[in-house]
Each structure stands twice: as structure tokens, then as C-alpha cells.
Specification:
alpha+beta; Rossmann fold; Dna Ligase, domain 1; ligase; Biotin_carboxylation_dom; biotin carboxylase
Amino acid sequence: MFEKVLVANRGEIALRVIRALEELGIASVAVYSEIDRDALHVARADEAYLLGGPTAAESYLNVDKLMEVIRESGAQAVHPGYGFLAENAPFARACEEAGIVFIGPPASAIDAMGSKTRAREIMQAAGVPIVPGTTEPVDTVDDARKLIDKQIGYPVAIKAAGGGGGKGFRVALSEDELEKAFEGAAREGEKFFSDATVYIERYLPDPRHVEVQVLADTHGNVIHLGERDCSIQRRHQKLIEEAPAPVVDDEMRARIGKIATDAARAVDYRGAGTIEGLYQDGEYFFLEMNTRVQVEHCVTEMVTGIDIVKEGIRAAAGEPLSVSQDEVVLRGHAIECRINAEDASRNFAPAPGRIGAYKEPSGPGVRVDSGVGEGGEVSPMYDPMVAKLIVWDADREQATRRMLRALGEYEIEGLTTLVPFHEAIMASEQWANAETCRDLVEDKAWLKSLAAEKALVDDSEDGEKLEQTYTVEVSGKRFDVKVIGPPFAGGGGGAAPAASANGKKPARSARARSGGGGAGGDTLASPMQGNIFKVLVEAGQTVEEGAMIAIIEAMKMENEITAHKAGVIAELPIKVGDAVTSGATLAVIKDAE
């Protein structure tokens, strides 16, 4: 077994790996960027080294600096976690050449599965069913149009060959949407994966996203740990996961488990990996293989009792898997909600910021994997995840009730998160019926209904009115009372927090949600902090309501900003590359004369 392992990541996954190393008796080495100096994973590790500046390119993606730190620290192995360099074959190969163990599959397997077109070819040759579409890259929009007309038909999904995590994935429901989807997928592929190559698949409009966890060692053992359902997504990025999948029976589980292990054997896999697939009307199609530990591995751990991260470390050290396929048993039901710093009421706009008071839920069957704490910051430089909230109970219905209880306990002040969204989904009839909930996630009116209660403002002399919550006692019984009125002028004369003398805080719904950004009158304001990636209009141009004005890149996502009204672009104070804050003016649109 290793004596020291470097964790080439940050946030909750870095902490997750460090904890596993501690339990295995292995020393841990953390790395960090300039803005992560005070991060929890840095304090938790046995050693920590600065990589560089705040951007991922200067730090967590800086292979030369990472290799230098690996040599300096004396680490024998590197755990990449997920994201960043986790599926980077050149980095895995550089480790191998330097005599450092890469805790994951060999570079050849990452190469094979890293290219989605190559992966489809391999799976097709191995007899694994794939979604109908191309196995070769498609060079131009004209080529795509001809292939679709002859072989596939609309709707289609245009995908970056090196994509993943929802990046480089666009849908064309009809021919007039093809060019925009093709260019968007290629652009994101180039930006996030340095590869603008795209391919085409038939788009299944409402499939279930079902994936299978696999483990493999160097002794020829390849097993699966059952499946997870990850159907609730926004922009093709997961929000809620559960295990086992509510629509998969024992017969289907055995079938897709065989598909997954066949796929892993086809590329001589090692360690923890995931076969992702689409399930619809009793058919299961291979989608892609993620050659790393997944964000949602936790729900599989909860129902199997198997520590996936430890198994991956042991496999990399040359040890056999600790369990056989016959010993894998699924018990109960687990659900994971991703607690992201996003505002669901504004179409999941990123909402980075600093956390105030912070208290995680607890109690029976509750697990929280987080990488931040009170006073921590969710930076726009990285992904928006605050934590993963995972619960387990005897069945899906009881697990749902437990999740609602845990969400109600979560206290995150000063930051807008997806807690209200998850509460609404968990309480919905669609969730109870085990639907994909796409009708809710894509319903902008429903999402807007999740907005926080805002301050009530009038034009009277009394000025601003606030809704505040107080706790009172009447005849020895406690009551929470909402009061709408002017700010409480206690102490220094400013507004006091809604709290009673006994220190009880206001209801979580009032604490965890906040507004900001949007449009008022002629001004189109930025709903988020980020960088202007593209400007699609010019000053003086006439636009319709809903026309795309700009694309803002924030927290590794492209966010399309559309006109809030029809009119003429009177002012356009932005250009590509500009950094904007939430509420900054993007455009002024005057009524056309």
C-alpha cells in the first residue's frame, strides 16, 4: 500500500479522498490555488502546496507545477478526484512515466473512453448497444445536415467528442436549430476540452439517465455495484441522483450490469468507473464511460456499504477488490441532492458568494459531503457546488421524507442555493411518481415561483417594509410570527435580524434564499457574476423580446442572456472578456419609435 498520496483536486471531493486516505493509514498531500489558501481540504491534509494563481489553468490544471509538487512532496501516487485532470490521459501518462501511480485507469483506457466517438466504436464492436448516430466525427454543419436527413432524423443531440458533465451538449429539435447547436457544441468542446470535434446522436426526448458503477482490479476482477438514476438535470448536468433506479428490476439490473462490465473489460479498465446510459421503453443504450469516481458515487455507497474511493485506491496499489459480484447486495434506498450556489428562480443562474452562518443537517441516515464551512467562499472561478446532501432509508418513500427533513435543517446564510428547489421537487407529485421531472425543471414560471420573499417597498413616507420572523411565547408555548413593517430599529438604529431574545433564527426559507439581478424598465441587468463570453447584438440594433443579447460564462457554465423587452439597443456597455457583477448593466433597450 502507498505511504503518501497527493490529491490533485479541491472542494468536497478532495476532502472525501483525504478522509479515505486517513482511514487507510496513508499520508495526504493537498494542493491549492491562491484563492483556496483557507479551504477546508488544505487544513485537513497532512501537507499542502501552493500551485499558483486563482484560475484553474494557473493551478489545478497546471500539469508542470503538479509534477513538481509531486516530486517535492515525495508522494507515491496521485488521486485526481473528478473534474480537472481526472480524465486527462496526458497527465496519467506523465505520472506513469515519472514512476508515480495514477489512481484511476491506465492512460490507454482514458484515451479510449475520453473520445466519445472512439468509445462508441469500441462499445459497438464489443456488442454493447449504443444510441443510434455517428461513430465518426462530423466536420461541418452541411455534413451534419446530410447525415441527419439520410440516417438519423430529428431531433438530434450534437455532442463534443471530448465532452462530459453537460459541456459540449446541444440539441436541435429541427433543421433550423442545427447550425446554432452544432456551433455551440463545437465551441464548448474547444473551450473546455481543447477539442472542437463533434458527433451526432438521435435525441431521446424524455429518457431516464441510468448509470452503472463498476470496479476493476489488476487481477482480472470486474464487478458492478448496481445502478443509479440521474434523470433530474438542468442543462444536461445532474441535480438529484438516487439508487437503486426506481424503474429498474432485477432482470434489467443484471442485463445492464453485464453491459457495464463488458464495457470495462473491453478497455482493460482498472479502478472505479461509471458506464452511463439512457433507458427508455425497456431499452438501454450506452452513452459514455466516465473513467473516474463520480460526484454521485455516494448513493451507491449508501445502498451497498462499499467504500468506492477506498476500493479505487486499493486497486491502484495492486490489491484485489475486497468483494465479489455475488457479495454485492443492494439494501434500502438513497437520494443525493446537489446543494449548488445557484438561483433556480432565475433559470439556475450561478450565485457565487461568501457564506455566513452555516449548519449542516444530521441525524439517522443523513450524510453531508461538503468542501466549505462558515465564512467560506464559493468562487466564480470554479464549479458552484457547496455540498452534497445524501440520505438513506428503507425505501424510496421513506428516503424522500428523510431528505425533506434534512433539507429543512440545512442553514446556509448569505448565499443563494438550490435548497428551495430540492424541497419543491421532493414534495412534488412527479417525484412521488418517479418521473424525470423535466416538465418542472424546464418550466420557467414554476422555477420563478421558487424565488425568495423580497423586501416590500412602497412610496409612502414610511419607506421600506421588511418581512421578519420572530419567536414568541404565549402561555409557555412557542410560536413563529411573521411581521411585515419597517426595519427594526434596535441597537444602532439599523435593521435587526429576525430573531427573538432566545436567539432563534428565522425560518430557513427566509435565510437561504436571496434575489439580485434581472431587468427593470429599459435596463437589462446581469443576473450573475461572470465574464462576457460573447456579445450577439450591436448598439442601435432592433431586437425582439427573448432575443439573445450576450453569453456570460460563470462557474464553468455558459449562460444565455436574452432581451427582457422588444426595442432598440440604446446602450451596450459590454464587450467580450469583460468581467461583470450581478446587477451590472448589460444593455439598455428603449422602445422603438
